[in-house]
Design brief:
By secondary structure, the chain is mostly helical. The chain has helices spanning 2-6, 16-21, 28-32, 41-44, 48-87. It has one domain (2-90).
């Protein structure tokens, strides 16, 4: 389950963890090896304004990631629909409905009565 949440998904292009928590998942190995994932707050943030700018950048990056993930998901759904439409046929095109054929009828006005 954990591996699935930190793996990049084909449909969105991002791991679920990153989309939910707005940051990369830090594993214990990231703390033992110098990594770009660990931010040097002391070297980067000196004033309150620097802190606000850093947070604004983080929020902006998160918004861009969410927009890109939504676009990738829509693209994947469209691709899946196109494949389904080309390869799966629920009813053969050559057979038309005729009088006497059984069909499923949905009448929402009768629901709950």
């Amino acid at each position: 389950m954990w591996a699935d949440r930190i793996s990049v998904q084909r449909t969105t292009g991002y791991p679920a963890f990153e989309l939910i928590y707005s940051c990369d998942c830090l594993l214990p190995i990231d703390f033992s090896i110098a990594s770009w994932s660990v931010v040097d707050w002391e070297g980067e943030v000196h004033t309150y304004e620097d802190l606000l700018l850093a947070r604004m950048r983080q929020l902006d990056e998160q918004n861009l990631k969410e927009i890109q993930a939504a676009e990738e998901l829509e693209k994947s759904q469209r691709s899946n629909k196109d494949w389904f439409d080309q390869h799966k046929h629920l009813c053969p095109e050559s057979k038309a409905l005729e009088v006497g054929d059984l069909v499923l009828l949905h009448r929402p006005t009768l629901v709950g009565t």
